[in-house]
Amino acid sequence: MAKKIFFDMDGTIADLYNEENWLTRLLNEEKGLFRNLKPMHDKDRLTKVINDLIELGFEIEIITWTPKNVTQEYIKIVEEEKKEWIQEHFPMIKNIHFLAYGIPKQKAKYKKAKLEILVDDNLEVVEMWNTPKQRKSIIANHNLIANLQTLF
Fold this sequence. Notes:
By secondary structure, this protein is α/β, with parallel strands linked by helices. It has a single domain (3-149), classed as 3-Layer(aba) Sandwich (Rossmann fold). It has 5 helices and 5 strands, in the order E-H-H-E-H-E-E-H-E-H. It has helices at 22-27, 43-55, 72-89, 123-129, 144-149; strands at residues 3-7, 58-66, 95-100, 115-120, 135-139. Strands 3-2-1-4-5 form a 5-stranded parallel beta sheet, with helices on both faces. The longest helix is centred in the middle third of the chain and has 18 residues, at 72-89.
């Protein structure tokens, strides 16, 4: 059975929260907001770490929330923009799971693994994710790359 690492996007690998007026722009359903985000960390270093983890047998996937208080049409736009962002910045990641905002990330539909690690910037989300054996987490912060390297 596989080992998996699931990355959150917003505030973890994609720098949404440092965008000027990000919340107003989101609520105004601005097209291009998610597509044009900058990576949160040194992209080359994070890419190397992700590729090293893949070589060690980890499957890398994304679990991300869609925005709340927006139309279904905008949710579809955001999903497409997030897919495009991943394809541009981290094309080795193929599986992206979208959940409505606030749904616990462990409710995502994915093939279970013997070890499932969630990398997320939200402490409440990672605390809900953790279990004694199967599910662990890494809080996404400025030490993210170093924290991932401890898995080697």
